[in-house]
Design brief:
This protein has 241 residues and is α/β, with parallel strands linked by helices. Helix content is 49%, strand content 11%. The chain folds into 2 domains: 7-17 and 107-230, HAD superfamily/HAD-like (Rossmann fold), CATH 3.40.50.1000; 20-101, Up-down Bundle (Four Helix Bundle (Hemerythrin (Met), subunit A)). It has a 6-stranded parallel β-sheet, sandwiched between helices. This is HAD-IA family hydrolase.
Length: 241
Amino acid sequence: MSFLVRAITLDLDDTVWPFAPIAERIERVLDDWLRAHCPRTADRFPAAAMRTLREQVFAEHPQLAHDLSTLRRMTLERALRESGDDPAHAEAAWEVFYAVRNQVECYPDSVAALERIAARVPVAAVTNGNADLARIGLDAHFRFNLTSREHGRAKPSACIFHAACARLECAHGEVLHVGDHIEMDVAGAARAGLRSCWINREGRDWAHPEIDPDLQFDTLAALADWLDAHTAPRHDRTAPA
């Protein structure tokens, strides 16, 4: 299939890097920190209990579903308060969490593929997560990083895709959104009028009753190959905004 692509919006977690190892490391490092600084909280909320509390806090505040950072902080504050520790420790605990959250290990193909993709078209991150591309060291490949927290609504809401298109100065149908999640990424982008690309690294079967992706690859490298075959190199090698 061939069609015009003037820009790409790109999901991050489980598209550029796997998130599960990050989540496991967060739980381990945060538990170690709490045991050293807030042992009552660590005893009352070991990793599994902290996970349950987080899910409870998320369920109680659906209006903040777009703002994972605030929900994480609220979870830490509640855990400290309910354990009899000073909730003021939540800020230091958050910094521990956020440092680990940005210690990512990209999929083997991702960095080289990003370089190739960004040489063809402008790339913008559109994510419901809270990764910091500058901390990670990948920001040079992106025009900008539009997070659901910044925008105020999360994928699959059409408005976050439209906001990215506006910042890229492209019509909706000229932008290809790339991501791993069937609903959040592919279906959300398609409903918003964007082209869609499913990154299916695990060999899953497509499972949406109404929408099919325009493209499907098992790596970002394969997407880069497609772009090499269907688009001209960029000439606006300006610094990311």
